[in-house]
Structures are given as C-alpha cells and as structure tokens.
Specification:
Elements lengths: L2 H37 L3 E2 L4 E2 L11 H6 L5 H11 L9 H8 L4 E5 L2 E5 L7 H7 L1
Antiparallel strand pairs: 1-2, 3-4
Length: about 130
C-alpha cells in the first residue's frame, strides 16, 4: 500500500464520522421542526400537548399524516418527508403499504403457497420509518 494512503486513512475516517454525526443531528432537528409544523405549535406543559386545536393545517396533508394510527408528530414528520407533498398519489391505504414494502405478497406455485411479509423492492427509507 502506498505511504500517502496509509497516512490519509485515519483523517478521512474521522472526517467521514464527523459528517455522518452532523447529518444525523440535522435530520433530528428537521424532524423536530416538521413535527412542530404538523402540530401547529411546540409541545408545551407537563403533558407535552400542543395548544393549537388546528392540528396539521400548516403542512399539506398534515391532518392525514397525524391521523395514521400509532404515529406521533415526529414519526408522522418522517413519513411526510418520505411520501412527499402529494399523498393523493396513493388511492388506497394498500397502495401506500405496497410503496413502503410492508404489504404481504402471496406467491402460489402448484401446491405450495408462500406469503412474503416484506418485499425487497420498495422505498427503503419509508419502510424503515413504518417498520
């Protein structure tokens, strides 16, 4: 191995790690801010409930994202990021589930029947957010 490659490796690794930590923190702050936009206000008080009764009005489709069962504001913000502004592209909940790769797929051949719970071809970032 060349001498300059051996010397460059530790600094390159440190720089890459620093950049990855920065990206992670940036993503967390974006999720926090998007969650505030979905809720219409910051969470306040002991119960951490927003004081705005018009939830989801600041973001296009915000009411839909907040109505998903089991989603809080931060996870709804992540899913809103992965789906985009136009949630109407999914005609049915099953279409969204297929896009995320979480819809069960049944493969039948002769006497055998195989149900695959998670597809390989899907939006991986959305699949991680909903799984």
């Amino acid at each position: 191995m060349r001498d300059y490659l051996v010397r460059a490796q530790p600094t390159t690794t440190a720089l890459t790690a620093t950049q990855l930590v920065g990206l992670r923190e940036s993503g967390k702050s974006w999720e926090r801010r998007m969650g505030q936009l979905l809720l219409g206000a910051r969470r306040e008080g002991r119960a951490k409930q927003p004081r705005n009764p018009d939830l989801g009005k600041a973001v296009l489709g915000g009411e839909i994202y907040l109505s998903f069962p089991g989603l809080g504001d931060r996870l709804a913000a992540r899913i809103a990021d992965k789906i985009g502004d136009y949630i109407g592209q999914f005609d049915t909940p099953n279409a969204l589930q297929c896009y995320a790769g979480t819809a069960p797929v049944t493969r039948i051949s002769g006497r055998s029947e195989l149900v695959i719970a998670r597809r390989l071809a899907h939006n991986r970032y959305l699949g991680v957010a909903v799984h």
